[in-house]
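INFO  loader      accepted 1 record
INFO  loader      residues=103
INFO  predictor   begin
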Amino acid sequence: MTNTAVNTLQGEQLIPIAEAADDFGGVAIPLRTVRHYIYNGFQGIKLETVNINGRYTSKEAIQRFIERKQNPQRAPEKPKRKRLTQTEVNAGLKRHGIVKRLV
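INFO  predictor   done
INFO  writer      dumping tokens
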């Protein structure tokens, strides 16, 4: 749960996720699919929820999720990080004076 989700859901009619599964945008879907949308998302889009003695969402949050799912905006790809070889790590340690001699 993020502060953004709490702020967005504030003032909306909260419903338990089991109830959301029964009427997910007018269609019943399996509860495990709702849980997948909450924890893993769909192409980077997650269903907004709050945890207040159980997990809750709102009909408005479901509608926002469905709209974003139908019109996804591609997020910029993260640059891949280069993994250093042990030789490069050792050279960096020597260069910065952390290790003077390596065994």
